[in-house]
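Input/output pair, single chain:
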Amino acid sequence: MSKSDEFSRAREEHRQLGEEIAAHDRAYYQNDAPVVSDAEYDSLRRRYEALEAQFPELAGEDSLSKKVGAAPAEKFAKITHAVPMLSLGNIFSDDELEDFVARVKRFLGLSAEAEVAFTAEPKIDGLSCSLRYENGLLVSAATRGDGLVGEDVTANVRTIADIPHRLAGATPQILDVRGEVYMGHADFAALNARQAAAEKPLFANPRNAAAGSLRQLDAKVTASRPLRFFAYAWGATEPRPPADTQLGVVEAFGAYGFTVNPLTVLCRSAAAMLAHFRDIEGRRASLGYDIDGVVYKVNELALQQRLGFVSRAPRWAVAHKFPAEKATSVLRGIEIQVGRTGVLTPVARLDPVTVGGVVVSNATLHNEDEIARKDIRIGDTVIVQRAGDVIPQILGVVAEKRPADAKPYTMPDVCPACGSAALREIDPKTGEADVARRCTGALVCPAQAVEKLRHFCSRNAFDIEGLGDKQIAFFFERGLIKTPADIFTLQERDSKSLTRIENFDGFGKVSTRKLFDAIEAQREIVLNRFIFALGIRHVGETNAIRLARSFETFEALREVARQAAPDSEARKRINDIDGIGEVVAEAVADFFTEPHNEQALDALLAEVRIVPMEAVKSDSPVAGKTVVFTGALQKMTRDEAKAMAERLGAKVSSSISKKTDLLVAGADAGSKLAKARELGVETIDEDGWLKLVGAEQA
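Output:
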């Protein structure tokens, strides 16, 4: 198989996995009712990230590896985090740890021999929580949620003994302490004993028990549960605790009255980090609470600041997960799920089996080629593995236990959701069939339409309050909302209908009026949110911002994208936006040249008004300007310089053109410098750049 064929197959599998993961995120985080085990969910994540590691082009800005959790459940009030609660990247081997340390040094421009200190602490298997203190008093608490907005669990948190209501000593005026709510092994066993005595369902494991206990609407229920808390991080603080290291701030938390993990140590090399990992792994069973690895963080806060973040995770921290555990189970059936883009995904239904303390009953089979490659048949005894202590996958079949009547599995050729034909498209260049089988009923398939509408209404898109998953499904099933434009014509159509929405079960005059008001309030939307709402492949929130900054108006983006045929100047215009690249440029072009999309856009644009995106740091001398960096910089790395420019509202490009406003030329600048001079583009050196933006360095 050629590299292009291999990439094509990987891209389809990656897309398919993303659809399934997003659906499970909503079920778990929003509805508090997961339809699969934690183990199955994380097997999807591991495979998804493995594909991105093999093919970095797949890691676009809409990648779920760059997102955190899901929007908070509607049953809770919401709290916006002053500083986002991001997740951590995962590593699973000694080599990956050494690669992490090497990446940190490269980003900072340090030699391989330079010493960088890291903290190493147990990774608690619980539920992340953020606690806000003002003048030493606890005023609010929130779950992680989607990283930007969490669930208000203040009343519940006040019942946890480990969490002080008033901090000790001299504390910052504002302090956002973050940590993990968990349940110890002995407390978990006692809780399940009480559940059994009361003939109530048992909890699967301490993590589920802790999460379910914290996310109770009645704080009395939470108070009856033995929850604990470890503090290990912070968000907004004014001023920061008097320390310039990670370890120093955590020690300050202990002085304020928080419980901090005594197994947190300082390591000055990858070898020391691995030694601590082995030590913690060996002591794991005797700790009295669940951990699933060790978290490493760059100790010096100034270096953390320089390293910054990549969408969903900091560059300066990573979670080192424990090795895989294996078990066998019997495959009882294969069911088909239909994703947002119509991909049919086979899901294995297993006899429940405990792997590393977690019950696994489902596993993704990815696609029909994967099933055929491993020759997996219904009735087979299969080997199930959880990599990194939480990730399940089917490794293969125990051939000697295969039943005599087991037959190879055949994927359906019709969509189970709508009955339309389900086909594998043929790549005209290679003649190879795509790895994914897709429903062809894009306009009629409920599995696709509802998901697209849900994304359109989601928090970081149009953010229409009252149009959640259930409401969208409700209106779709009744034919009231089929396209995004239908949302904004709903009130007018309802006023002329004999069957009014206010008369439907679950609605009324007040709730219907609130829904219509919420829709009306969102007729005006900022450009980047509008672009994100369209659901263009590979265009997540970050790429939507990049496109919005570069084109400034939707009309300009649409016009260029319509003309963006391969090898055209228009395609190059999109591709040259720093951070975009060919894969995203192709996806944008494909979206705007699809007639059905154009028709839907015209209808939508007749109902909404798009306003420009406000420039970041509008008072910056480079806000709104297109900047290109070239050559070797001495006082910062190229990545740091680009990140600085974007924070100041500049548009960073990777090539020189007549539209370039400024070239920053480091040592050994070559062809870009020559072209800038030819075009008359203003050129400055690194010192000039630092002086221009007011960031001179000694």
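The longest helix spans residues 3-30. DSSP finds 24 helices and 26 strands in the chain.
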